[in-house]
Amino acid sequence: MIKLKIGLIGFGTVGTALIKRVQNNNKLVETRLGITLEIVSVLVKNKSKQRGVELAEGVVTDDVEAFFATDPQLVVEVVGGLGEVEDLVARSLASKIPVITANKELIAQKGLELFSKAESAGVDLYCEAAVAGGIPVVRVVRTSLLGEDIKIIAGILNGTCNVILTKMSDENMSYEEALKLAQDLGFAETDPHMDVSGKDSAAKIAILTSIALGRWITLEQVETKGIESISKEDIKSCKLFGYELKLIANTKIVDGNTINIGVSPTFVAKTNPLSAIKNENNAVLINGTTLGELTLSGPGAGGDPTATAVYGDLLDVAQKVIMNKQGDVLKVSGALDSSSIVEGVSKYYVSVKVKNEPGVLAKVAVIFGNSKISIQQISQLAKKDSALISLSLNECSKSDLDLCLEEIEKQAFTITVNSSYPILD
Fold first, then answer.
1. How far is the C-alpha of 138 from the C-alpha of 282, rounded, in Å?
2. What are residue 335's DSSP bridge partners?
3. Average per-residue pLDDT in the chain?
4. CB–CB of 166/181 below 8 Å?
5. Among 104, 110, 204, 246, the one annotated catalytic
6. Which residues contact 51 (CB under 8 A, 6 or more apart)?
7. What is the pLDDT of residues 303-321, one digit of tens each?
């Protein structure tokens, strides 16, 4: 039996779930692969903290040098963020130690540099758990669809936002009520900004697109809008028009050098499989020239789904270490220049609050017509002194829509332009 020494950086929810998986499945792995996984060191900030998992004396340490002194053959990082973690991962790769990470921020921000280090060292760098929790979408894009001409990647990539939007839609909660419930259930952090702002989803779609394209995209290159401003009125209008409101991360690959990429709350048609994804679940829709449409869905948040993805990478890389077949590193031919990220076109939903006066609806329609934006569907809900005009629009660019809405905002009959969201059929 071959023993493989594992060094683990991080002992939180995911780290604890991973250790339990290794301990509980070792007999199965020994039988199937002829490998014994041994966690020889766990690097933490506070080694006195109780975590509910038994490890041998001295395995848990807060000393970086003591961690590397155990000579791990494979390092797993599940801390998240940048800073010291980046240095630890870089040091591991420079020491010719393969790395598995669940750190989406690290891969999104420093992926190009780290994959280059891994290639130079001839070792593996795997990051399945950095995107979509337990869904093996990175592996699918990286290997199974390596020869596919991928045109579209669209997904629900943040469990926190999907829980909030599900509760707002199904239980008529306000954003604030749904966020509080998500926090109480453990699906949202005390500070949920990274999730609800859309930045978490932006990091994940940047990673997936970089892998599909073979050119690296940074978080700053992803146009991002979060869910903080979504109202009950938006949810009601969404249902009225026959859609579901989801936070969608979306990439359209025009060719090998030109893409449109962004994250935004989106009206999703009920015929689209993403519309049915609820609560903490994630899903990714991939469309390729020869493949057609493929949808992967499953649990996208929590310790166990993330640990499942890490564990899958761990077994994959472990076999390569034993067989001395490392170096199957993601090939990326440099960073994608921002000039290659172009504005796309989309159908849109728009709502405008106006004075309840005769002829206002017609005037709004004329402004859209003058902007060469055609209206697909329109409704008006009138109250005593005001009216809410809701419209679904045929395809247009966001810049043309913004100019049109600026013109509407200038009108004396306009109270406020409430919202505008892309539509995904």
1. 13
2. 216
3. 94
4. no
5. 204
6. 11, 16
7. 899 999 999 999 999 998 8
What residues are paired with 150 via a beta bridge?
A: 288
Kindly list the distances between the CA atom of residue 182 and the CA atoms of 53, 179, 196, 257, 277, in Å, as whole numbers in the listed order.
26, 5, 11, 39, 16
Q: Is 180 a catalytic residue?
A: no
Tokens at 238, concatenated: 């969404």
Q: What is the Cα–Cα distance from 299 to 306, expressed in whole angstroms?
A: 9
In the chain, the percentage of residues whose pLDDT exceeds 90 is 83
Cβ atoms of 230 and 257 within 8 Å: the answer is no
Confidence of residue 329 (pLDDT cuts 50, 70, 90): low
Return phi, psi of residue 178, to 5°. Answer: -70, -40
Cβ–Cβ < 8 Å for 251, 260:
yes
pLDDT at 161: 97
Q: How many CB atoms lie within 10 A of CB 33?
A: 16
The type of residue at 346 is S
As given in the structure block, the two tokens for residue 9 are 């950086």
* pTM (predicted TM-score): 0.93
